[in-house]
Amino acid sequence: MSADEMRAIGFHEHGDIDNFELLSVPKPEPGPEEVLVDVKASALNHQDLIAVRELDHYVTEYPFWGGGDTAGVVAEVGERVDDWAVGDRVVVNPAHACGECEFCLQGEQSMCANYEVLGEHRKGGFAEYITVPRTNLYPVPDGYDLQTAAAAPMAAGTAWRALADRAGVRPDDDVLIVGATGGVGTYAVQFATEVLNAETVYGTTSSEEKAEFLRDLGVDHVIDYTEEDFDSRIWELTDGRGVDVVYNNVGGDTWVPSMRSLTHGGRLVLSGATAGPNPTSELRLMFVRQLEIYGSTTHSRTAFETAMGFVFDGSVEPVVQETLPFEEFARAFELMDQRRLYGKVVLTQD
Ligand SMILES: NC(=O)c1ccc[n+]([C@@H]2O[C@H](COP(=O)([O-])OP(=O)(O)OC[C@H]3O[C@@H](n4cnc5c(N)ncnc54)[C@H](OP(=O)(O)O)[C@@H]3O)[C@@H](O)[C@H]2O)c1
Ligand SMILES: [Zn+2]
Q1: Which of 68, 137, 276, 290 could bridge across to 90 with cysteines, CB 3.0–4.6 Å?
Q2: Whether residue 205 has its Cβ less than 6 Å from ligand 1
Q3: pLDDT tens digits for 228-261?
Q4: How far is ligand 1, taken at its centre, from the CA of residue 250, in Å?
Q5: 237 CA to middle of ligand 1, Å?
């Protein structure tokens, strides 16, 4: 490979996860306000599976590679960058916003009219190098390893925005997390229990083994939805009251049971549709119980920095089930696709 090329894990055509291949692609150069990051670790998000399968309307250039969760070392800075230096250890904020629209001016970057996310609209960290605007970096403290740091940015930022900024979880809230074992879910559990101090935290999963993991992570009541309907179980566990907040990043046929799990005035916050984007709904529940529904997408810059602060001060710990060399990407995609993961899988590079 020549000096102006690098390796990336990407695809030329949409299809399935076996379309990912190890590519040789041009090494990017930083613009005047950009930084070139030498990627040391990048974590998978479910978004990477969705990108190859479904996001042909977002991708504008092939080959495309994802990777919304990235950590590395600054390799070069653009001519107008004076706040980062070669050798700095960083994580990358995957959210790109224009900084000028009405939403950016309110600090709501993920509502930006020109919003772009690494791994969906832009090529991400499944490569040896990535260029990002200087404002999209956050420092990794000395002693905190880059592999663990890479498991945080998108997943932690998304969970924090959904629970803290959108649903506004308070200490007297009972919270149900649907999809609790995944990347976003494991942060959601920890933010709810360790930072927002929710009264009681419930979580759903699909096996006894995963249920045990969730109990260890701090979930008070785990519901195995392959054994029983989770809304009926919530009803029993709360003596017919329901919970105050449901955080759902699964969608599909979990949507109506999520509504049924809520008490009067309950808040349902949604940030994903892994199990399908077009479920049936239950309008009567919405108005009779006077539910509030919040959509949530990644994070504002403040939410990102807050979430990373909680990661780096140890309030929450990234759950990294597997760390694999870059070349073993196929196994990483399979693990996620087969739902054999707790938390994250990280790909590493020298
Ligand atoms: N809005 C945003 O900005 C944003 C940002 C990040 C992620 N997301 C979305 O949030 C969702 C979760 O992402 P993630 O990276 O945390 O995913 P992940 O690590 O793959 O976790 C997903 C979890 O959902 C559970 N699940 C329940 N039903 C499922 C089904 N039919 N198919 C697959 N999984 C199912 C599985 O756990 P059990 O087997 O334990 O049930 C699985 O571990 C994705 O839809 C992703 O696109 C959105
Ligand atoms: Zn904007």
Answers
A1: 137
A2: yes
A3: 999 999 999 999 999 999 999 999 999 999 999 9
A4: 6
A5: 25
Ligand 1 pocket mutation, candidates 17, 42, 46, criterion most atoms within 8 A of CB: 46
36 close to 77: Cβ distance less than 8 angstroms: yes
Distance between the two ends of the chain, CA-based, in angstroms? 16
CB 47 near ligand 1, within 6 Å: yes
CB atoms within 10 A of CB 144: 17
What's residue 50's pLDDT? 94
Task: Choose among 198, 189, 197, 191: nearest CA to 217.
Answer: 189
Q: 248: part of which helix (H) or strand (E)?
A: strand 243-248
Ligand 1 within 6 A of CB of 300 = no
Domain residue limits, the chain: 5-151+318-348, 157-295
CA distance 55 to 269: 23
Q: List, in sequence order, every beta strand (DSSP E) within 11-107.
A: 21-26, 34-43, 69-77, 89-92, 95-96
Fold agreement between 5-151+318-348 and 157-295:
yes
- Higher local confidence (pLDDT), 56 or 328: 328
Any ligand 1 atom below 6 A from CB of 321: no
Instruction: Supply the pTM of this predicted model.
Output: 0.97
Could you report the per-residue pLDDT of 258-304, keeping only the tens digit for each?
999 999 999 999 999 999 999 999 999 999 999 999 999 999 999 99
Q: Is residue 91 pLDDT above 90, yes or no? A: yes
CATH classification code of 5-151+318-348:
3.90.180.10
Among 106, 126, 129, CA closest to 118: 126
Fold held by 157-295: Quinone Oxidoreductase; Chain A, domain 1 (3.90.180)
In short, whether 179's Cβ falls inside 6 Å of ligand 1 is yes
Query: pLDDT by residue (tens digit) across 10-48?
Result: 999 999 999 999 999 999 999 999 999 999 999 999 999
Phi, psi (rounded to 5 degrees) for 309:
-60, -45
Look at strands 69-77 and 200-205 and give their pairing. unpaired
- The answer to whether the CB of 286 falls within 8 A of the CB of 136 is no
